[in-house]
Design a protein that fits this description.
Radius of gyration: 55 Å
CATH class of the largest domain: Alpha Beta
CATH superfamily of the largest domain: PAS domain
Shape: rod-shaped
CATH architecture of the largest domain: 2-Layer Sandwich
Strand order of the largest sheet: 2-1-5-4-3-6
Number of strands: 21
CATH topology of the largest domain: Beta-Lactamase
Number of helices: 16
Strand content: 25-35%
Distance between the termini: 144 Å
Number of domains: 5
Length: about 575
Amino acid sequence: MLNHTTINAVDCVLAYDTHEQKYLFVGPGIDTILGITAQELYQNNDAWDQLIPKKHLAGIKSLVNNLAENNSIELSYQITTPQQIIKSITDKKSLITDEATGHKILLSTIKETPAKPICITAASTGAEHSQQFLNSLIDSQTSFLIRINTDGNYTFVNKQYLKTLGYKAKDVLGQHFSITSLPEESHLCETAFMECLNNPGKVVRLLHKKPDVHGNLHDTEWELISIVNETGQVCEIQGIGHDVTEKIKIEAEIRDTAQKLDTFIESITDSFFIIDNEWRFVRVNAAFEKVWGKPRAQLLGKTIWDLFPELINTPFETAYREARTKQESVKFMVHFAPLNKWFRTAVYPSAEGLTVFAKNVTYEMRAQEDALWTKNNLEALINNTNDKIWSVDTESRYVYMNNAYIAQIKAMTGVYPQKGEYSYKDMGFPQEVIDEWSAYYQRALNGENYTLVLESVDDEAKNPAFYEVNFNPIFASNGEIKGVGCFAHDISERLKIEQELLSQNKRMRNIASLSSHELRRPVASMLGLINIIDRENPNNPENKQIIDYLQIVSTEIDDVIRLIVDHTFTGK
């Protein structure tokens, strides 16, 4: 086995068996430097690698994988601990062979150092080979890497920097850094340069625009740090930068989108709020403040159950807890008695909490209730009449029928009509009846409003009946005709009365004719005879003859009266 006496227990040293692919020893202090425990590293070989920026990890691994036996290499780079702390470390790696097992063991000695640029140096006989990998690593970076001397002149630029700005190395090296800066932002670069000179080891951050050779501007983000010589004097300034043009553009779009979202959230009439996993308000909009009567200053950071205890044991609490437990959206509508309001609510869960939209639909619900009440009363009224009421669509399919109409069709056909069926087509009517009613409907569908008197049957006994039928076009809100409404009123009794009145009028005319002709003559004769009676001498023989004539005339009057009576009551 590995001779542990070669390991100084005071240092943070790690021993890794490359054959077994596992750590054999993790020295104390690992958690202080890397922010991970020895146990985590034993359980997960990649725990250390996950702390190294991906842009450097591949190059570091390449150098380590090509490390020759009994050679060593020293690496300086930055890590980000699980606690999100950025640290600079020095990592010296050596490759040896365990005499007992023959396995190659990679020893790592790490220590935290002041912030310094990424640096990789090789030792022993592998130095030249390692330098080749170092150069390859530098040139393969997508980041910018530059060095500037204390006079501000470029001493090194990597390929990515030249490629992005379109320069040749000869155009930049030896030139002052201001040649790649905008004149209006040169003071930013100068300030950062002086801060690096005056603060060795301090990482100075700089964000500014750089023009390329074509005049295009690139937003760049830099980390600058001074490099000191063996005497501690600043000899160069090294910078690692990135082209963040697209990043800034995306961030601007995100801010714009967020602003639009904020505007939308504040402008909507729905109550909107977000609560975290501790049931605390994270955000509310103006509509929520208005409906619930509390300003957001009293809401944010407070627990919903403490502020609104009236929600407990209601469908609101049930829905919120269900959405959180199942991580599924929940939609519901409920009447909230304390506010006497109806709410249509949608709850959307996330890992951070719940987002809730609650729309006050009290007006709509009351309007629906009123509409339902009106509909029920209207249907009751419509079904409480013997008049037949129905409507059809543009294809002559039944849309609505009242009970009286349904009963009549049942009496005519023996089958109850159904909504959606073709009027007069599916009931076994003769083709001429179907064609007749199709023509009636079409007239109304063409926009005509008219009335017809039609004969039908009114009961199971097939008794004839006469109906006055109104055909009315039904218009949509856009003015388009969408159907026909029909109203049929039974006028059989009215027609019967009218017929009787006509007959009576005829009889009266006959009576008048008889009165004016047949009755007037004998009456005139009787009046004439009465006038010639000798009232002074009743025994006058002529009176007897006159009385005989009066008897004859009276019989004629009686015959005419009998004739009038016959015309009056029998119509003969």
